[in-house]
């Protein structure tokens, strides 16, 4: 009779098989091979964040054109028409009022022209500030584009890792099936008990469950990427595995620091904000300078305003207008001080960013070297685990080891192979992280 432990093992195997076969079959979906360059291109094209940034750039461009238009003259055309009320005249006090005859309607046609000649630099600095705002909008777009690319790459690397895990699990299942055939043969020959067969079947079932989970994860990550890329979300994405064999040449740490200071979009953005703060100082100071304008106007009106005679009267004038805002001498002082403090604040932000860049570059540089070293170490571990499994398999087939030792050796080999897959993926991701902090992504 079979022991209680054997019944438990049989029950667990049956339950596991029931779980597998009760699950619906994976729907057959179309697949799409996707390279890293295609990932970046489609991700940038369909990013809602970048679409919003593009609209902000267009708005900044329109503001620039609006400010440039202030250099053009102001031209106004006016037309007035209305009813003239009856005037009342008194020659002696308030007695004997007179009601002279006047036309019932009045008309006034006017043309006014005003050309700024000198505004203390307000127009020039306003144009420069608008240009800087447009530049800042473009740099913000560039910064967001880098972050979006890195986010897409992170998901792409997850998909890449899952596909490699899928390959490892399939190979492991094939070997487990062959091992199970050998164990069943040994059971028929009476060399081992039925417990070894049941445990091997349970191990194979667990491997198949892991494979099913990996396939589901591939489908989920593919859907997430398809939504971000504006594609059919049912497409099964296949990553480019050739990136594992790309030759990567590392530069020195100091070279990466210099590249980051020169090319990092966030650093450029802070420099542009500092320059705009300088412009604000000059713009505020310009409000304390005189304004000079050329003006001209022409007016045609009836009746004559002084005599109320029913006649048209035309007059014109040309001149130069000069004004000086005396109140700015005591109103703009604090504004100028605030603008100077803002410059210092932006310079402080630049220095903080330079410190952060050194930390980010150093971290990315060391993590990438660490990932490379981990891959080399795990390559050796994989060879050792494979050799250990081969030895344990031979010993088990020769009845020199128990099944637990063989399954443990297989588990160690599988874990090390999966770790190597994760390490290879980490090498690619840390390389792109290094390119990101250097402004080359």
From TrEMBL:
GO molecular function terms noted in the UniProt entry: efflux transmembrane transporter activity; porin activity
Official protein name in the record: Transporter
Pfam family for this entry, one: OEP
Protein family according to the UniProt entry: Belongs to the outer membrane factor (OMF) (TC 1.B.17) family.
Native source organism of the sequence: Bacteroides faecalis
GO cellular component, as recorded: cell outer membrane; efflux pump complex
UniProt superkingdom: Bacteria
InterPro entries: OMP_efflux (IPR003423), TolC-like (IPR051906)
Subcellular location: Cell outer membrane
Keyword list, A-Z: Cell outer membrane, Coiled coil, Membrane, Transmembrane, Transmembrane beta strand, Transport
Ranges in a coiled coil: 129-186, 368-395
């Amino acid at each position: 009779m079979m022991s209680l432990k054997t019944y438990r093992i049989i029950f667990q195997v049956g339950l596991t098989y029931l779980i597998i076969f009760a699950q619906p079959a994976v729907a057959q979906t179309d697949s799409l091979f996707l390279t890293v360059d295609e990932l970046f291109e489609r991700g940038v094209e369909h990013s809602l964040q970048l679409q919003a940034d593009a609209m902000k750039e267009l708005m900044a461009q329109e503001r620039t054109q609006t400010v440039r238009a202030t250099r053009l003259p102001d031209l106004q055309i006016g037309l007035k028409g209305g009813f003239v009320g009856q005037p009342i005249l008194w020659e002696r006090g308030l007695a004997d009022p007179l009601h002279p005859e006047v036309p019932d309607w009045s008309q006034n046609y006017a043309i006014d022209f005003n050309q700024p000649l000198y505004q203390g630099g307000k127009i020039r600095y306003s144009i420069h500030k608008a240009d800087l705002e447009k530049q800042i909008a473009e740099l913000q777009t560039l910064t967001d584009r880098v972050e979006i690319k890195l986010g897409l790459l992170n998901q792409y690397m997850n998909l890449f890792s899952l596909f490699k895990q899928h390959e490892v699990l399939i190979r492991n299942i094939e070997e487990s099936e062959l091992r199970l055939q050998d164990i069943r043969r040994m059971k028929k020959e009476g060399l081992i008990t039925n417990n070894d067969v049941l445990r091997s079947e349970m191990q194979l079932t667990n491997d198949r469950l892991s494979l099913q989970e990996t396939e589901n994860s591939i489908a989920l990550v593919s859907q997430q990427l398809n939504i971000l890329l504006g594609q059919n979300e049912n497409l099964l994405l296949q990553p480019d595995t050739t990136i594992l064999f790309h030759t990567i040449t590392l530069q020195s740490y100091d070279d990466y620091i210099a590249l980051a200071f020169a090319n990092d979009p966030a650093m450029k953005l802070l420099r542009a904000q500092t320059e705009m703060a300088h412009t604000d100082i000059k713009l505020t100071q310009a409000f304390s300078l005189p304004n000079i304008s050329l003006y001209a106007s022409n007016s045609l009106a009836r009746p004559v305003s002084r005599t109320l005679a029913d006649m048209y009267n035309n007059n014109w004038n040309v001149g130069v207008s000069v004004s000086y805002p005396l109140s700015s001498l005591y109103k703009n002082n604090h504004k100028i001080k605030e603008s100077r403090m803002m410059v210092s604040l932006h310079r402080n932000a630049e220095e903080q960013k330079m410190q952060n860049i050194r930390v980010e570059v150093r971290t990315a540089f060391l993590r990438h070297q660490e990932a490379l070293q981990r891959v080399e170490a795990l390559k050796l571990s994989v060879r050792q685990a494979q050799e250990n499994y081969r030895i344990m398999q031979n010993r088990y087939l020769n009845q020199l080891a128990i099944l637990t030792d063989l399954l443990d050796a297989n588990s160690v080999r599988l874990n090390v192979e999966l770790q190597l897959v994760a390490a290879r993926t980490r090498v690619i991701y840390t390389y792109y992280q290094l390119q990101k902090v250097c402004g080359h992504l």
